[in-house]
Every structure is written in structure tokens, then in C-alpha cells.
Write a structure and sequence with these properties.
Number of strands: 10
Shape: globular
Number of domains: 1
Distance between the termini: 34 Å
Number of helices: 6
């Protein structure tokens, strides 16, 4: 790291009026929650060596906060979601919508960049942050009932090795959590819950190629 060009007076941390939370709030690019994601060897940031393989990340814009090889969460709510990733990311939350059905059908095609499955609203105590956790792959959808069974309870997500006749890959495994941790304020939970279960019919988000590749895994 280059030497500092100036020297500021020493100030105790307890006196500084702003913290990391204030910085995060002031640099948000939209009213989106970060997403919780297992970063496998297929993720671009893992291929480049920027992020450890099979660690969980809290992803906001192009920032990936490393949560380690397991993630403790409070499971708050779930909703259906279908997503199509092209020049724009299109998300549909109504399973009766023809667009949802179109994306669901198209997801079975190779390299369709379409996914569907349950999306969970969770809280991660380590990062002290709410997040979404989308279980949109075949492997994730098979594991999703285990997470739904822990609604309003704590869970631990861990990487799980899966092997078939041709391939080996990793997905998330759900386990109950018995470790106590501090919960967010009940008013915060209610606010995030109400936003989450009342999504717009359709959202369209422009993203970078790196982000589209990361979400597709």
C-alpha cells in the first residue's frame, strides 16, 4: 500500500460519527437487498482467484463479503421467483403469470439463463444484514423444503458435494442451527417482511456481464 500523503489528527474510534453501516447506506445504488450465494468453482470471481471456492458470499452490486464456508441465517419468509438473465435480469414473482410459466419451461433448455424456485428472506447475524437466498437450480430446489421447514427459526447453510455419472458439483445443504445469536429489531423484521411478500409483479434490472454469470450458477 502506498504511503499516505497527509497525516490527520488521531481520533478515537468511539468519537468518529460515521461507521461502515453509514458508508454502506450512502453508497447503495438501489433499494435492493444483498443476496446470499454459494460461490462455487463455476463463479467468475472464484475462477479469477478473487474469492475462495465454496464459500458463501453476501453480494451487493460488485462487492462480495466473504462469510466463510458456512452461513448462519434466520429464515423469515419465502416467495416463488422466476428469473431470466440476458441484457437485463427479469424477475417474476407470480407463478400464475404466463411469463413465470414461460421462464420455468425455458429453464429446462441448455444454456437458457433461466431459473425458477423459491426465494427466501433471511438475516445473517455475522454481517448484521437482511438478504435474499434464491434456490433456483435443480439441486437447490430439492433442498428447499428443508429450509422452508425452518421458517422463523435459525439454519446453517453449508457446501455439499454432489456427484453423478458425468459431473461433480457443489450446492448448499441446510441444517438446523442451535447456536444463539442476536436478532434484528422486530420493527426491522416486519418492514423487510412486508416488502418481501409484496413484490412488484415484475422487476427489470440492468447488470454487468460478471454479475449475470455469477447469478447463473
Amino acid at each position: 500500500m502506498a504511503d499516505a500523503l497527509i497525516t490527520l489528527p488521531k481520533v478515537e474510534d468511539s468519537v468518529i460519527p460515521f461507521d461502515d453501516e453509514a458508508f454502506d447506506k450512502s453508497t447503495k445504488t438501489g433499494d435492493w437487498l444483498p443476496r446470499l450465494q454459494l460461490m462455487t468453482s463455476a463463479s467468475e470471481v472464484c475462477k479469477s482467484g478473487e474469492f475462495p471456492i465454496n464459500h458463501f458470499a453476501l453480494v451487493r452490486d460488485q462487492t462480495n463479503k466473504d462469510l466463510g464456508d458456512s452461513a448462519t441465517i434466520l429464515v423469515i419468509a419465502w416467495r416463488p421467483k422466476a428469473i431470466e438473465m440476458g441484457e437485463e435480469i427479469i424477475s417474476i414473482y407470480d407463478p400464475k403469470d404466463p411469463e413465470f410459466e414461460r421462464i420455468q419451461t425455458k429453464s429446462g433448455e441448455k444454456d437458457s439463463r433461466c431459473m425458477y424456485g423459491p426465494e427466501f428472506l433471511v438475516y445473517n447475524p455475522e454481517a448484521e444484514s437482511f438478504a435474499t437466498f434464491f434456490m433456483g437450480s435443480k439441486s437447490m430446489r430439492r433442498e428447499a423444503p428443508a429450509l422452508r421447514n425452518l421458517l422463523q427459526k435459525a439454519a446453517v447453510l453449508k457446501p455439499h458435494k454432489i456427484t453423478n455419472a458425468k459431473y461433480t458439483w457443489y450446492s448448499a445443504k441446510v441444517e438446523p442451527c442451535t447456536t444463539l445469536f442476536d436478532l434484528p429489531d422486530s420493527d426491522e423484521i416486519e418492514e423487510q417482511y412486508n416488502k418481501f411478500i409484496n413484490p412488484p409483479k415484475k422487476t427489470v434490472e440492468r447488470v454487468s456481464e460478471e454479475d449475470k454469470s455469477s447469478r447463473a450458477r
